[in-house]
Amino acid sequence: MSLIKQITPVNEFVDRIEMNDTQIFEVYKQFLMCKEGEYLNIKISNTMPNEHDKYVMCGTVYYVDDTYSCISNGGLLSKVKVNLCVASNVYTLLSKSRVRKRNFVD
């Protein structure tokens, strides 16, 4: 689970979501509406998921270094903290966390 640090519009259809752990995801606005301060569950898989309530992107890994892997998802780019193999096909699952924010009063 990662905290959304910043959301930047790329154009009228796509947002770039930057997480507090420096992962970055470009997503179609109409399919995943998020706000800064919300949490996202992130899962990377080599097989097509059965989970229908999540935002799923299919992509190809095009760059890997010691810390990050970069994925092209049909033109949408992602930078993830997972060590993957270059040219492998992966599925990225994003879903909003159900964690509630609690306001504590002293």
What number of structural domains do the residues give?
A: 1
Number of helices: 0
**Strand segment tally:** 8
- Largest beta sheet: what is the strand line-up? 1-2-3-7-6-5-8-4
Describe the model:
This protein is mainly beta. It has a single domain (2-96), classed as Nucleic acid-binding proteins (OB fold (Dihydrolipoamide Acetyltransferase, E2P), Beta Barrel). It is built from no helices and 8 strands. It has strands at residues 2-9, 14-19, 24-28, 39-45, 55-64, 69-73, 76-80, 89-96. Strands 1-2-3-7-6-5-8-4 form an 8-stranded antiparallel β-barrel. Strand 2 (14-19) and strand 3 (24-28) form a beta hairpin. The two termini are 27 Å apart. The mean pLDDT is 90.
Question: Which secondary structure elements does this structure contain, and how are they paired or packed?
Answer:
Layout: E1 2-9, E2 14-19, E3 24-28, E4 39-45, E5 55-64, E6 69-73, E7 76-80, E8 89-96
Antiparallel strand pairs: 1-2, 1-4, 2-3, 3-7, 4-8, 5-6, 5-8, 6-7
